[in-house]
Design a protein that fits this description.
Layout: E1 24-30, E2 33-39, E3 42-46, E4 51-55, H1 61-69, E5 71-77, H2 82-88, H3 98-101, E6 107-108, E7 115-116, E8 121-130, H4 133-139, E9 141-151, E10 156-157, E11 160-161, E12 173-177, E13 180-183
Antiparallel strand pairs: 1-2, 1-5, 3-4, 4-9, 5-8, 6-7, 8-9, 10-11, 12-13
Length: 193
């Protein structure tokens, strides 16, 4: 047996080893106020009905608005929004509307009315919060049912991602930690070994 070339990873960095899913912008609104934040930890958890999980810290203004309204949006920013994504993740919305601060245009979600971002994004999902108090309180993990979704057909059509040189600005970004992002960029057809 050969010696391992692996080196230990500090536990505070262990999540970065599996954190390659797309970074999302979480949007929420309630009582005339709205907010947007970046989140790197989201995933699908069920197909029918479609359900997702996303980590939204209990101290965030986004979480407060989402719990008050019962819904939120997940927008998948493309490469063109990497700087914006990083910026909205660095400031709290309690002090002011980040949509206004950063000049973000929003549409109104068709089912729940949450603010959704299309310009510079590959897709969005409008989500109804599924109350799971234990996981929300203990792990900051929120579950939701997707009630509407849409995507830019230049990058997602007929149920498939289309990554090529013509849509680089829409390709999803993936947060690797410490402000470092990588973009999707190519696909590889796997084969059974």
């Amino acid at each position: 047996m050969s010696a391992s070339r692996f080196e230990p990873v500090r536990l505070e960095h262990a999540s970065r080893l599996i954190n390659h899913g797309p970074t999302v912008l979480v949007t929420s609104a309630h009582g005339g106020r709205r907010n947007v934040m970046a989140a790197a930890w989201s995933m699908p958890v069920d197909f029918t009905p479609p359900r997702i999980a996303v980590v939204i810290d209990k101290t965030t203004f986004t979480r407060e608005l989402a719990q008050a309204s019962g819904g939120f949006g997940l927008c998948l920013p493309g490469l063109a929004l990497a700087d914006l994504t990083y910026s909205v993740g660095q400031h709290s919305g309690r002090a002011g509307d980040k949509f206004e601060r950063y000049g973000i245009e929003a549409i109104t979600g068709p089912v729940l009315g949450v603010p959704l971002i299309e310009r510079g994004c590959a897709a969005w999902l409008e989500c109804r919060l599924i109350p799971e108090r234990h996981t929300e309180d203990a792990y900051d993990t929120c579950f939701a049912e997707v009630v509407a979704a849409a995507a830019d057909p230049r990058i997602f059509a007929n149920g498939h991602w289309l990554f090529d040189e013509h849509n680089a600005e829409l390709q999803t970004i993936h947060h690797l930690g410490a402000g470092l992002f990588v973009r999707s960029g190519g696909t590889v057809q796997a084969r059974a070994l």
